[in-house]
Design goal:
mainly beta, Phosphatidylethanolamine-binding Protein, four-stranded antiparallel beta sheet, three-stranded antiparallel beta sheet, PEBP-like_sf, YbhB_YbcL/LppC-like
């Protein structure tokens, strides 16, 4: 039954999968580099933590080939949470006790947290949001 499927959605990203400008490096007025709000449903039984990886799968590498670019890594999300609010990145310590164990890893910009992608206006980029249900916590190592 499709309604019982483990799934990830964002109420702010359209069905066409277009990423609104406020979630990009260019931004929308004063708002830019915001992490999008995410919701998930039907966490598999026995899940101890969730991990999220977001990639721009159409990002060009300077040497030419198209190589996915990691935009955001989030680990140790408690399975009791039902999502992450808009603008969560960089504020995990301020988001409240429920989010205390959540950690953000380094992206391909070599920075922790969400780094809004640079998307040329003429090019359409696809973004892949992958949520993993894990049977343990993830050890991201020391933050520099």
């Amino acid at each position: 039954m499709a309604s019982e499927e483990f799934r990830l959605v964002s109420p702010k990203i359209s069905n066409e999968g277009k990423l609104p400008r406020k979630y990009t490096e260019e931004g929308q007025g004063a708002q830019k580099n915001l992490s999008p709000p995410l919701e998930w449903y039907n966490i598999p039984q026995g899940t101890k933590s969730l991990a999220l990886v977001v990639q721009d799968i159409d990002a060009p590498e300077p040497s030419d080939p198209i190589v996915p670019w990691v935009v955001w890594v989030v680990a140790n999300i408690p399975p009791t949470l039902k999502g992450l609010p808009e603008g969560f990145s960089g504020k995990e310590g301020e988001a409240g006790e429920d989010y205390a164990s959540v950690q953000e890893g380094y992206n391909d910009s070599k920075l922790p947290g969400w780094r809004g992608p640079k998307v040329p206006h003429s090019d359409a980029h696809r973004f892949e949001f992958k949520l993993y249900a894990l049977d343990d916590l993830v050890h991201l190592g020391n933050k520099i």
